[in-house]
Amino acid sequence: MQKQVEKEIKRQEKEEAQMRKLQKKQQEEALREQKRREKEEAEAKKQQKKQEEEALKEQKRREKEEAEMKKQQKKQQEEAEKEQKRREKEAAQLKKQLAIQKQASMMERFFKSKKDSGKLQKSGDNDSADGPIDKKEAVPATTSKIDSSLSQQENWVLEDLWRLATFPDLCFFHLHT
Q1: Domain containing residue 139
Q2: Contacts of 166 (CB under 8 A, 6+ apart)
Q3: Is residue 65 part of a domain?
Q4: Residue 13 phi, psi dihedral angles, 5° rounding
Q5: How many domains does the chain have?
Q6: Which among 27, 33, 37, 146 is most buried, taking Cβ atoms within 10 Å?
Q7: Does 71 reside within a domain?
Q8: DSSP state letter for 123
Q9: Has residue 160 been placed in a domain?
């Protein structure tokens, strides 16, 4: 009987050892599973963080591009406005220059015709602005005043006329003095 009891004890010890071995194996398996899950979670967090960083980088890049585009549009608009002002200024200068050239040309023709004719006309009392003047008489009266002013200055040269043409206010003042 004792052998049987010893056998029984050995069998129980063997079963307990197997149970401990099985429990240890299960614990190791549970620990491996837990580590695997933790690793997966860490990997998922890492991936999520990476995606967030990429999204943030992309957003910053877009904002930078938009700011650069706005800056470029503003610069183009300013350049267009500057160019338009320059063209308007050139057009105004050209218009002024053409008016001056036209006035000078008219004065030059008048001076040549006056020089060629050799006649000096003096203005009389009928050219005064005391009485009413109709439109048809206004042109000859003005021409007569110009004739009178030019005939009083016999030594004028073409350069003087050009100078007067470039300063119309002086010409107007001189002709009416």
Answers
A1: 135-177
A2: 100, 104
A3: yes
A4: -65, -40
A5: 2
A6: 146
A7: yes
A8: -
A9: yes
Type of residue numbered 12? Q
Of 114, 118, 117, whose CA–CA distance to 147 is shortest?
114
CA distance 114 to 146: 11
Beta carbons within 8 Å of 150's beta carbon, 6+ residues apart: 110, 111, 114, 156
Q: What CA–CA distances, in Å, run from 165 to 17, 26, 28?
A: 127, 114, 111
- Per-residue pLDDT of the chain (177 residues), as tens digits, is 778 888 888 889 999 999 999 999 999 999 999 999 999 999 999 999 999 999 999 999 999 999 999 999 999 999 999 999 999 999 999 999 999 999 988 888 888 887 776 644 444 444 444 444 454 455 556 666 666 666 665 555 666 666 666 655 544 444 444
Tell me the residue type at 126: N
- Which of 131, 123, 110 is CA-nearest to residue 176? 123
63 located within any domain: yes
Token pair for 111: 């001076």
